[in-house]
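TICKET #2291
ISSUE: user wants both folds in one file
ATTACHMENT 1:
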Amino acid sequence: MSSSSNSKDALLTEHFRYTPLSLIDDIINTVNAIIYRAIQAIENGLLSTPPPVLGFGVSDDTSSGSLRIRDADGDGNEDFPEAREEIENGVHQLETLLEATVDKTFDRFEIYTLRNLLTVPDELAGWMRLGHYEAC
């Protein structure tokens, strides 16, 4: 990193009272927290929905005409262990997909913001003076 870049970063840090990179990191961390809350809400919603509503039902073998009787939980509801496993697997896949997408997108956001928004042009860096340095 050149001294010109260091002085521009120092100028922006002094002006904003935080480093430009910390602003971007806070934005990314906030978006990740929102994603994790949303994923948790999706998982809780799916797990609280009765499995037959989600498409899990009594499996029947039409060729032999026999029906499979499912075990029941403590409340007398049918137990669908494969539903819980499939929901957890699907939610994990969704979480992984969202994390990868957010990482890729916010990498671009970080580069764009640092290059174009949170920067001081070279020709202006020497001429900028913060308000608290101006003489009264």
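ATTACHMENT 2:
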Amino acid sequence: MILTFDDQRPLRAIQVYAIAIQAMYDLAQLPFLHTIREDLVEEIHGVDIRLVFISNPVPASQTMPLKAAHCVAALYRGVNVMTDGVIFCSLRCQMLIHDDKVGVMIIAPIKLAPHAGAHGIDDDKVERDARANDDTAAVAKLGVDNGEVEDAGRPGFVIKFHFLGKPIQNKEVFLVILEALTMAAPFSGNSDCEEYHVVSPDGSTAIIIDRVESPITLTYGWATRALKLLYQEIITPTRKFGDIYLELFLVGQKFGELRMLNILGARNSTAAKVEEQ
């Protein structure tokens, strides 16, 4: 893939992470080898960024069209390069397969991105409004260090959470959630998620998802939904960045646990696994 940045069109880092997490969740709901035939457009109310995946017409000589897997790899790579280089600005990523141009990912201000329109967005509302664009519509009971979130988009799905006191750098919270969604993307939403451990690129933060003894199966679909709710319905409104323990319930039955923890000295291979796709 070829990444091209335009530093004349800066982006706010928190907005990049918000749109990236939303897009990665949506990609994780698709079959990994799903063919992208129409443009995929991501927007969030309160975020002045649009993320677009555009599929190139496939010539007769080209054997592979744009797949969801390619979009996952491009998004993961683009956000991590932005973070490593502290270059949060408009990005155009040309996706290639054996030198064939199969598609483009664009992250840009809404007024400059494809399918632009007048949205009248307030940059400073991202922390409050990042979760207002989808079917989550959660009912939250938020305390200082604990609470619960009921997912109206998935009736009966409730998360109880407890902050554990140890802080995590804001950036690492965003990156480890993106990492976890990236690692989940190759799996079918109906696949069992018995044990799922992910470490952020710098090895400082981990997400651990475990099933518990229950008649309800913890699947990757539920795991990714929990990650989405963690970011949009817990981290965003509370603005708390630290170790957290989540219990996952469906119609009153506990069936899983999720921990996000500040750790040291670990290293994972997410990048290598994604780039192999």
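RESOLUTION: both attachments delivered.
EXTRA DETAIL ON ATTACHMENT 2: The helical segments are 13-28, 68-85, 126-129, 170-184, 220-238, 270-275.
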